[in-house]
Every structure is written in structure tokens, then in C-alpha cells.
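User: Let's play a game. I give you a shape written as C-alpha cells, and you guess the letters that built it. Ready? Here's round one.
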């Protein structure tokens, strides 16, 4: 378990290295990012399609995707496509004809992927999928089919039409034979609903997806990533009041003003699912720089404000320093950084909670620094290291015990706490150095013991 968390934090660290280089652009990025519908075609080139007087197919937005398209007549479809698409796309359609005729479904899938990735295919993606791919979709790898359909659906502007397109495919996926494809499509439908403000529908589809996913072994990373992505985003959106702009995601971390009404914060669930999402993707290739900036900022704020999070990675600028401060349990550095909190109003609003959290981290660090045979602390020493009044130390210890940050016992009469265990966590370089020093001292003691008993062993031999 610890190795997994270390790997996850390694992914977060990679994000934060990107952030460190571009922190000046963060404010502008946060303002615009996700106020656009996620992954909309506005982020890609918008070439003007070459049109003929008679369109090859009905307008995408007027099609009822719950109904099957007319039976495919291959030559007729290819001829119409060649007369209504740019010349750059013509080789694709010739390849479609050849591969379809030869029933080379795998090769046809790969060629379709190339087509849907081509910038000039945008105006034609929905029609190609609906009038061509649907004819032989049952012969394709169902997960690849879902991936193509999800990409294509983003070209449909009308929310209800887009959802009809995806839910229609869901009814055609065999859940028993293609469980991963079913989960992937459910997660993508949930994310589409989230973008359009349907939180209830999002949660329903998330729960249905998890019920299947939880029973599967060896799941493809793309399937896990789709689920954890929508789960993380769902817990972010839940903390904001619903906005009138249903096509935009309103994230609670970035703008804290009088117009935002905070609901019950879902910091810890967001943090958990976001880390799981990062563990399933290649951060360097699957996330854009803007997405790295956004997710790094999300993770940092949720790490501070999550009431069950007492493990910290690395961040950028003063927030990076603040995370290191929490990980070290250094109250002095915390107080030095506190004047910067107004830069992040949500941190300023939660100062009392953060103060309690740094005191807990200071207690953990105090225990961690001690040898295993020297973990009986007086209330007075705890008060000095946490900078708390003596009469608040008992409550702090009880809080740490209830959160399972430490294990041990407490003697209120003698005002002492005996700690037997501390929660494992990610260590900074300095903390690793301290641990190495203690291990070195332990090795020296073992050497001394060996020297003392060696003569006795020799005599016995």
C-alpha cells in the first residue's frame, strides 16, 4: 500500500515540477479553465468544411440516435463522402471501402482512429460513426468502439442529443461480455452529465459503474482513469452551488467570493480519486500544461483542507513551501507563511482548521523524531512543540488517536502520553536524512553488541 502511495505522489511531483515553471500563468489559467465545456472542439482547429450543394447526410443535430440508421450501402456511402469532404480525407474513405470489403475489422478500427484524430474530420465524425460504423460495430472491440464514440460525441453541441448518442450505444453494449466497455461508457456518460449540471444523474451512473468495476480484475488503465476522473470532478462540483451556466464546471478551489455558496466540502474524496486518476494516466502525455496547473492546485488545496489527509507531497511557490511545512509539522514556518493566506481566500477562511492540523502534524513529527524506546511524552513537552496551551494538549492527543494518526495510551493524572505507533507517510529529503542518521546509530549499537558477545560465542564454540 505504501509503495502505491509513493508512486502516486511521484506522479503528483511530476505535475508540480511543471507547475513550478509556469506559476505566473496560474491565475489566468484558473479563470478560463473548465469554464469551457471540458474537451470541447473549441480547443482544436476549426477548418471550414468543403461543402457541396447537397449534403451527404442529414445534419447531425437533427438525427435521432436512438433509432438505427438506414442499412449501409457501401458504395453509395463512400461516393457521397468523397463528394462532400475535403480532399485530405479521401484516402481514409478509400481505405474504409477496402478494409470493410475484406472484413479486416481490427485494421479498420485503427484507420477509423486515424480519421477521428484528423483535424479536418471534425464536421464529419458524427455522420461517419452513425451511418458507417454502426453497421459493423458488433464486430469491433467494444472498448475501442466506446472510445471512438466518446470522442465523436464531443462534436455534438446539444446536451440532450449528445447524451442520447451515448446512452443509445450503452443499450447496445453487452454488459456481461464487455464489462470494461460498459464501465468506460457509463463513466463517460456520467462526465457528460456532470458538464451539463446533472449531479444526480452523474452520481447514479458513477455508482453503477463502480458496482461493476469493483468486481473486475486486471482492468485496463483507460477504464480506471475514466471512472476516477469523473469521480474526482464530481466531488469538486458538489462543493459549489449549482450555477445557471450548466455547461461549465464550477470548481470550488479558485474563486472564493460572496457569490459562491459553499456546501459541505468534499476535499478528501476529491484528493483520493484525483490521485487514483493520476496513477492511471501518463501525466507527461495525457495532460496538457493547463490541466497540470489546475490539478496541482486542486490537490494542494484539498490536501490542506481534507479532514482525513495527513500525508503531503510537493507543490510550487509558497503553497509548495506550505505543504513542506505541514509535512515537517513546523509551526514556526506555518506562522511565517500565514500572512500569505489572503492570496488563497479559501485557506484564510479555514485558518482555525489549518492551525489544528499543523498542531497534529507537529505532534506526529515530534514522535517520529524519537527513538522507539523514547516515545513517552509529557503534556508540557507537547505543549511546547505544538505551541498550544497546556490545557489543550489532552484534546489534541485524543484527536490524533481518533484519526488513527498515532496509537498509544494517555495518563491524564501524570500528564503523559505513551506513543507506540505513528501513521506511515511520505518523507522529505530532510526527514529521510534524519532517519538515515538514526539507522546509522542503531547499526553502531548492533556493532557494539556484537563485539561484546563475540568472545562469549568463541568460548562456547
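Assistant: Ready! My guess for every position:
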Amino acid at each position: 500500500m505504501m509503495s502505491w502511495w509513493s508512486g502516486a505522489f511521484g506522479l503528483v511531483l511530476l505535475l508540480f515540477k511543471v507547475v513550478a515553471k509556469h506559476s505566473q500563468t496560474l491565475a489566468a489559467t484558473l479563470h478560463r479553465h473548465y469554464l469551457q465545456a471540458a474537451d470541447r472542439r473549441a480547443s482544436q482547429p476549426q477548418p471550414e468544411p468543403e461543402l457541396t450543394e447537397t449534403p451527404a447526410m442529414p445534419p447531425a443535430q437533427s438525427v435521432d440516435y436512438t433509432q438505427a440508421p438506414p442499412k449501409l450501402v457501401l458504395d453509395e456511402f463512400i461516393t457521397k463522402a468523397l463528394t462532400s469532404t475535403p480532399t485530405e480525407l479521401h484516402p481514409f474513405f478509400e481505405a474504409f471501402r477496402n478494409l470493410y470489403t475484406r472484413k479486416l475489422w481490427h485494421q479498420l478500427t485503427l484507420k477509423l482512429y486515424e480519421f477521428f484524430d484528423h483535424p479536418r474530420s471534425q464536421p464529419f465524425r458524427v455522420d461517419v460513426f452513425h451511418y458507417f460504423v454502426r453497421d459493423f460495430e458488433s464486430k469491433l472491440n467494444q472498448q475501442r468502439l466506446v472510445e471512438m464514440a466518446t470522442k465523436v460525441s464531443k462534436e455534438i453541441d446539444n446536451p440532450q442529443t449528445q447524451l442520447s448518442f451515448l446512452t443509445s450505444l450503452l443499450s447496445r453494449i453487452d454488459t456481461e461480455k464487455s464489462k470494461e466497455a460498459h464501465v468506460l461508457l457509463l463513466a463517460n456518460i456520467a462526465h457528460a452529465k456532470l458538464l451539463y449540471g446533472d449531479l444526480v444523474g452523474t452520481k447514479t451512473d458513477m455508482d453503477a459503474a463502480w458496482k461493476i468495476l469493483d468486481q473486475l480484475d486486471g482492468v485496463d488503465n483507460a477504464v480506471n482513469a475514466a471512472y476516477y476522473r469523473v469521480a474526482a470532478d464530481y466531488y469538486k462540483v458538489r462543493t459549489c452551488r449549482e450555477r445557471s451556466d450548466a455547461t461549465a464546471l464550477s470548481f470550488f478551489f479558485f474563486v472564493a467570493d460572496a457569490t459562491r455558496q459553499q456546501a459541505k466540502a468534499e476535499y478528501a474524496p476529491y484528493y483520493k480519486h484525483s490521485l487514483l486518476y493520476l496513477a492511471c494516466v501518463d501525466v507527461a502525455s495525457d495532460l496538457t500544461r493547463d490541466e497540470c496547473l489546475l490539478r496541482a492546485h486542486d490537490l494542494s488545496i484539498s490536501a490542506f483542507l481534507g479532514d482525513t489527509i495527513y500525508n503531503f507531497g510537493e507543490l510550487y511557490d509558497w503553497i509548495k513551501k506550505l505543504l513542506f511545512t505541514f509535512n515537517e509539522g513546523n509551526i514556526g514556518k506555518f506562522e511565517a507563511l500565514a500572512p500569505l493566506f489572503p492570496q488563497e481566500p479559501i485557506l484564510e477562511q479555514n485558518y482555525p482548521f489549518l492551525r489544528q492540523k499543523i498542531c497534529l502534524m507537529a505532534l506526529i513529527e515530534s514522535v517520529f523524531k524519537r527513538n522507539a524506546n523514547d516515545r513517552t511524552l509529557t503534556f508540557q513537552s507537547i505543549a511546547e512543540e505544538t505551541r498550544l496551551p497546556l490545557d489543550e494538549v489532552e484534546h489534541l492527543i485524543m484527536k490524533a488517536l481518533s484519526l488513527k494518526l498515532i496509537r498509544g495510551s494517555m495518563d491524564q493524572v501524570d500528564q503523559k502520553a505513551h506513543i507506540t505507533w505513528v501513521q506511515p507517510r511520505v518523507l522529505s529529503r530532510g526527514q529521510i536524512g534524519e532517519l538515515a542518521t538514526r539507522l546509522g546509530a542503531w547499526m553502531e549499537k548492533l556493532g557494539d553488541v556484537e563485539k561484546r558477545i563475540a568472545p562469549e560465542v568463541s568460548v562456547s564454540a
